[in-house]
Amino acid sequence: MAGTELDDVMAALRARPVAEDWAEILAAQKAAQAAPPPPSLIPYPVFPYGLGSGLGGVARFECQRPGCGWAVEVNADVAPIEPLILPAGFTADDVSAALSERAGVRVETQRAELERAFREHLGEVHPEDGPGAAH
Ligand SMILES: [Zn+2]
């Protein structure tokens, strides 16, 4: 019976003490303060095309040096879709975890590619700024 599973989940949620949630939140905050993210070469993207244009998924990352105009464009809509790998008898949690992992891998891959592109561009066109000068 479907109601039983939901009841089990609700019971598990209720059984979880609120203090545990707070402990997790505080630990995450502490970790975030202890390890600031490394400075990134990648500027915030702009979205130069309208959502209705068919190119709404295109993000443009522009070189921040005055008068440069160099940019990298990434179209999230044409990113390859890898198959989800799920265990036999998978649950909704497995699907959620697999989707999160795939999204995380994609974001990390894209970040690394953008950072390499910006590093190359800065080294070739703006070497006077030195490594890591862009923030
Ligand atoms: Zn530039």
Question: How would you describe this structure to a colleague?
Answer:
- The protein is elongated.
- Strands 1-2 form a two-stranded antiparallel sheet.
- It has three helices and two strands; from the N terminus they run H-H-E-E-H.
- By secondary structure, the protein is mainly α.
- The protein has helices at residues 2-15, 18-34, 92-125, and strands spanning 58-62, 71-75.
- The chain has a domain at 37-129.
- The model has no long low-confidence stretch (mean pLDDT 78).
- The structure holds zinc ion.
- Zinc ion binds at residues 63, 65, 68, 70, 121, 125-126.
Key structural traits:
135 residues; mainly alpha; two-stranded antiparallel sheet; 2 strands; 7% strand; binds zinc ion
